[in-house]
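Supplementary Methods S3. Input chains for the assembly prediction are listed below.
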Amino acid sequence: MALEPGRQAPDFSLQAAVDGRIEERPATLRGYRGRVLVLAFYPADWSPVCSDQLPVYNELLGEFRGLGAELAGLSVDGVWSHRAFGLERRLHYPLLADFEPKGEIARAYGVYRAKDGFSERALFVIDGAGKVFWSYVSPLDVNPGADGILEALGQLQARNR
Amino acid sequence: MSRLTPPVGPRDHVQGDPTAPIELVEYGDFECPFCGRAYFVVKALQQALGDSLRFVFRNFPLGTMHPHAVRAAQAAEAAALQDSFWKMHDVLFENQTDLEDEDLVEYATEIGLDPPRFQRDLDSPEVAEKVRADFLSGARSGVNGTPTFFVNGERYDGSWELDVLLPRLRALLDAQPELPFD
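Predicted structure tokens for the full assembly:
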């Protein structure tokens, strides 16, 4: 079961690739303190092209940032796959490698599909204090889009005023 | 989640009978190959369903992945200002690999638009705003990639291949109560 609103989001320390680079230092939840983080778990890199949710989020980075949020993607793929995938799709946000131990962070967030060996399509909005504000698990074959995220970010902004 | 927001209104481009019982909205990207395929599926749906279907197209250009997509969407909206949205929509989908600026102007001339007016509108903030508004409405409606279809206001998550979508829409038609004769 995905972690529910109100729960403290588990910290992580994962290798990250963004804009064709492998980041020197691992990405951590602590590193996002003070900012809202949208965490998008997805099953795997390299799924079919424009029908994929990740390029959609790419186009909305400006909207997310305007609502005070950063975005990161997470799958069990290794950081080299992330680097190539992110580069090919021109994604401008980090992809985090939940690679070793495999799926550890997905497990901690309650979204690991142990039989399949990859994570659910799950979205989390984590507030600046590291608490889960909103979470959603989409059926594996249904890309969730960004409407839930945008609504949650709007509500979070309103709450913080 | 995943409800069409805003509903189809006066800013939209609608083909078919405005009172048709089935409303099919597509959020599409003119440079997306899947949308290129869906273009033919929609034509077949329109043939098969006739007056029972109204079709609406809204722009959802994935500009980072498809470098010509935003400009092509702007071309369609510029054509709309000369009452030629659908002609341009068709030309763009039939020429997905030729979407440079010179091509867009050529298409405008081919479909009978006034070229200087088209060029001005193509570069105008109003047209850019319409494309952006479409895009944001898509994001808020739960568009998750291209093409994304909404049937009577609900996001459709099934296959949009003709042999799946047509029976689905026919079944929806059969389930509709008889409309009063007026």
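The beta strands of chain A are 13-18, 21-22, 27-28, 36-41, 69-75, 95-97, 112-113, 118-119, 121-126, 132-138. Chain A has a mean pLDDT of 93.
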